Amino acid sequence: MEMRGMMGGFYKLSEWIMRLSVTNVLWLLTSIPFWFLVIVFLNASEVGQLQAVIIPLAVVAPFTLFPATSAMFSVARKWVLGDTDVPLLKTFFRSYKQNYVQAMLGGIVYALLFAILIIDFQVYLKQMAGYQLLAYLFVALMLLLLISLLHFFSLLSHFHMKTIQLLKNALILTIGRPIRSLIMAIGAVAVLFISTRFTFLIPFFFGSMIAVYTFYNFNLVIQKMMLMKEAADEEKDSESDSEEVEK
To answer: CA-to-CA distance for 226 and 104, rounded, in angstroms?
Structure first.
């Protein structure tokens, strides 16, 4: 019995590894142009080179990275909500197609904001003598923008909303749920840090692990908000009943 339980646990673990790796590979393959430019960006040594790469990155990301990431989050959503046997290829590409326009539009907004913040960071850090401290303000803003981006993908995969509502609600969740958002950011940074130390993880687990962890935390926030809403509605109904009895 003990051996059978161990074999069952190993089989489930191998299934999860397979799911995460396949989804991560699909994510990378459907956003190859973006990652090629990222490699160029990381190898740039001068501010001028960085600025020259940022513009193509900002242009390519909404059309490749954002739809691919949206599809990956849709697969992660299925897993977190208990549908672990979902067909990976079908779910990924169906979500990619369904959410492409909204992911692209949201991507244009985020890409522009990230490009502006990165350029400002580089200028203040390397070209503005005496203003280097202000450069780290842009780092903080980029962190907030990154957290809101994670919320954006979770919202896009979970709700049917207009793009402007998705962007607004992503910002509201980032600011309105600071502790959970911070936990989400720490987890994502931890995965990134580990991936930079063990680079073989990047092709197979980097994105999919962040997607699952992010949506898990997002789902906790949504469930808590729904419970609070139900409690408030029940309290409101009880107050209405009491007023009717008094009348």
So the answer is: 29
What ranges in 61-126 are assigned the alpha helix state H? 65-80, 88-98, 100-126
> Does the structure show a pLDDT above 90 at 92?
yes
CA distance between the termini of the chain: 66
What token pair was written down for 97?
Answer: 């197609």
Closest CA to 93 of 68, 76, 63: 68
CA pair distance 68, 85, nearest whole angstrom: 20
Which residue from 19, 10, 156 is spatially nearest to 79, judged by alpha carbons? 19
Q: State the DSSP code for 200.
A: G
The residues, any chain, with a CB within 8 Å of residue 31's CB and separated by 6 or more, are 64, 65, 68, 69
Neighbouring C-alpha atoms within 13 Å toward the C-beta of 12:
7
CA–centroid distance for 211 within its chain: 6
What is the pTM (predicted TM-score) of this model?
0.86
Where residue 30 falls (left for φ over 0; alpha for ψ -120 to 50; beta otherwise) is: alpha
Comparing CA positions, the residue from 186, 205, 120, 111 lying closest to residue 152 is 111
Write out pLDDT tens, residues 212-247. 999 999 999 999 888 887 777 776 766 665 555 555
Q: How is the chain split into domains, by residue range?
A: 2-246
Q: What are the residues whose beta carbons fall under 8 Å from the beta carbon of 219, sequence distance 6 or more?
A: 80, 81, 154, 158
